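REQUEST ID: PR-0412
SUBMITTED BY: lab tech R.K.
PRIORITY: routine
TASK: structure prediction, single protein chain
INPUT:
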Amino acid sequence: MGNSGSAVKVCTDHQGGINWLSLSPDGQRLLTGSEDGTARLWSTADSQCHGHFQGHESYITFCHLENEAAFTCSADHTIRKWDVVTGQCLAIYRGHTSIVNRILVAKDYLFSGSYDRTARCWSVDKEKQIQEFRGHRNCVLTLAHYSSRDVLEEEEEEEEEEEKVSRDLLVTGSTDCTVKVWWVSSGRCYQTLLGHTGAVLCLILDAPNRELFSGSTDYTIRTWNIVTGEQLKVFKEHQGSVICLELVNRHLYSGSADRTVKCWFVDTGERIQTYKAHKHSVSTLKYHAGILFTGSGDACARAFNSRSGVLQKIFRGHKFIINCIQIHNELLYTASHDGTLRVWDIRGMCKRNKRRLKKERSGQGRSSQKGSLSRLFNNKVGCMVQQENRE
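STATUS: complete
OUTPUT:
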């Protein structure tokens, strides 16, 4: 394991904990939303603060950054849109009657979920509510969006006429233990996915494969067919709430309050790796270049070899929980409840890992040309390793 090193930059402008960190699609800017009620815009070129968005009357719960506009939601029941160049507030979206937990921007839509038990859809360009999604019995914590064009064949589509105009669907996860899928155009509930016995904390969508993954306080992850609503698999090995999910190349990574991350092979449901060493809940995770980066309630970020599970590096310096991480140009950004944004250089680690991956692929190519006896031996060793991991 490498040494802990130190951050190449520590940004201390916020006067309260940072609840979320968003990277723009072009990678040029980062947006932080804070307990101090403000959001700040940072350049990834120099890690300097280039914008300060003030106006919310309470803490910011979540933020989202586009190339030309920033969006924030708050405990003041509102969502705001900001100009990233001037810092001017362009729109205030009012209608929720409690804390807005999450926002999602897709096409010309802005979606929001709230403690008021509703999700809502807004026009991005106008301060106008387009739709309200009412049906959850408790607060809406997490959102996902897709189009039926991504998952349905023409002969499978049975929408009403108004729904044929817009085939967008919103997915909501709630503390009422359910996931719901809604037609955006009508606000009608298309599916209610039942099975969880605890709050749904996180969602991840794989529209091309018609799959939705949900993580819950019931310690499980569940996979659903988003066309039929059928529950496909239940991943049960965690011993604590499932807090965050990441899907990469049919491998699902899940971070939990049990202080571990687990990697699952989606097609079989098999758990193929467990990443340990955290001293508190795993609050956030991100995969990059064969490395799994995690943030934890123990105030540390960590880097693991995603295949072997070996801990490669610990990033120390934060004082409280790391709420969010981002990676750009082989720099790791960590945002914490201690109010700081820290920047870490991971270029050396990424280079070494890429060389190792290349070598492993090359070795696999050579070994595949060997005789059947060698293949049989390798398969038996592989089975032994997998059994060891299970134990």
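NOTES: The chain has three helices and 32 strands.
REVIEWED BY: pending
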